[in-house]
Design a protein that fits this description.
6-stranded mixed β-sheet, alpha+beta, about 20% helix, 8 helices, FAD/NAD-bd_sf, FAD/NAD(P)-binding domain, D-Amino Acid Oxidase, Chain A, domain 2, Glycine/D-amino acid oxidase, single chain, 21 strands, about 375 residues, binds flavin-adenine dinucleotide, FAD-dep_OxRdtase
Length: about 375
């Protein structure tokens, strides 16, 4: 474990960096540095879908993350709304699920869906039914980030905004700290949780196969509020997802795609996405056709894709000792953040994690170039 001299500098105060700080602050001198504000980049724009149980991931990830969201529920300004998720199944695909649904899901016919959620759906005539999952829910990503910050600070972490890290300090193959615009800061461990920027920031030390990734999301106010039990959902042909909000609106997201240069790309929600939402998605939900767009979210810079859709959370062999990287969260940075925090804790302390972490290792990629095809969650 740590000595009184052990300091961890975390670069990046998005949900990943904050989750790391919360995990390590009770035992280490933790300093978080962000060039902007806390969760001011991609993290505050996240839709707050918590749906790890829909994915074929090791069971331990969803369970660990859910336990943490449940434990935090009601603390500070954070609340976690547990709701089922319905993955709509087009008529032509329904037959394949009537005998056997994918692990974790239960297939309901359209009539069964309408009877289980009588006030939530609108026109489902194109669908044979839906796969219903539990162990899912939603949160407000900014409230969550602020609650992680509060907990990390309560445990002694120092979190500093407007502190750009300009370089890593390395002596004889071991990290000794970071350089910032205000001067160097010593550290025994340095964790880079800087999203897609991590590739260029650490290029001198390790090659990371990650690319910027854009998502679109809008909040629509229905003619009347959605019911309290409205499930989260997704539609596979349009590749969109939705979730209710606490005030009865609906957040609809999707249309993710890779970007070459986020800084040169207009980051507003794309008009084609806005049209899809209003014309094709809104009628699926009760009272949302004819609703009004109240808010639009797109990353101010970008989220970060990896070639296989899983993050890189590792202390790579070829990197200097004491360096940990967290990048490539691929649209799941919020829902995975408890897992991220604990995985980094394990890399720093050597403790075991209660879930498998081999899927996070950089060594799984032979090709480290950023020239890879996008692997969507939908495929
Ligand atoms: C519209 C949208 C919807 C999404 N919906 C969901 C969802 O429903 N569920 C989900 O789990 N995920 C979702 N995501 C993805 C999620 O937002 C990201 O995966 C997550 O926020 C990544 O967090 P991060 O902390 O790794 O990176 P970021 O939030 O990008 O944080 C990186 C931080 O590093 C800082 N930084 C960069 N360079 C430096 C430097 N040199 N010095 C100091 N600081 C630096 C930046 O300022 C930034 O604050 C969504 C994303 C978007 C855009």
């Amino acid at each position: 474990m740590s000595t009184s001299a052990d300091r961890v500098v975390v670069v990046g105060a998005g949900v990943s960096g904050l989750a790391v700080a919360r995990e390590l602050a009770p035992d280490y001198d933790v300093v978080v540095l962000d060039k902007g504000g806390v969760a001011a980049d991609t993290s505050s724009r996240a839709s707050g879908m918590i749906s790890l149980s829909l994915e074929p991931f090791p069971d331990g990830w969803a369970t660990f993350a859910l336990d943490q969201f449940r434990e935090l529920d009601g603390r500070g300004i954070f609340s976690f709304a547990e709701r089922e998720t319905v993955r709509l199944v087009p008529k032509e695909d329904a037959e394949k699920y009537t005998d056997e649904a994918p692990t974790g899901g239960e297939f309901l016919t359209r009539d069964e869906l309408l009877s289980q959620f009588p006030d939530s759906f609108g026109d489902l005539s194109a669908y044979g039914g839906g796969l219903v999952y539990d162990g899912t829910g939603y949160l407000d990503a900014l409230d969550y980030a602020m609650t992680l910050k509060w907990q990390a600070e309560k445990a002694g972490a120092g979190i500093f905004r407007d502190h750009e890290v300009t370089g890593l300090c390395v002596d004889d193959g071991t990290v000794t700290g970071v350089d910032t615009e205000y001067g160097p800061i010593d550290a025994d461990h340095v964790v880079y949780a800087t999203g897609w920027k991590t590739r260029e920031l650490l290029a001198e030390y390790v090659e990371l196969p990650v690319r910027p990734l854009r998502w679109n999301a809008v909040v629509v106010e229905p003619e009347s509020p959605l019911p309290d039990d409205c499930p989260l959902g997704s539609e596979p042909t349009m590749r969109v997802y939705w979730r209710p909000t606490r005030r009865g609106d609906v957040l609809i997201g999707g249309n993710e795609h890779l970007l070459s240069d986020p800084e040169e790309t207009p980051m507003g929600v794309q008009s084609s996405f806005r049209e899809t939402v209003l014309e094709d998605v809104a009628p699926l939900l009760n009272g949302v056709a004819g609703g009004t767009i109240r808010r639009e979210d797109c990353c101010p810079t970008a989220d970060c894709a990896s070639p296989d859709g899983l993050p890189i959370i590792d202390a790579p062999d070829e990197a200097p000792d004491g360096l940990v990287v967290v990048t490539g969260l691929h649209g799941r940075g919020v829902m995975l953040s408890p897992v991220t925090g604990r995985a980094v804790r394990s890399l720093v302390t050597g403790e075991e994690t209660p879930f498998p972490t081999s899927g996070f290792e950089l060594a799984r990629f032979e090709d480290r170039s950023a020239d890879f095809e996008y692997r969507s969650h939908w495929d």
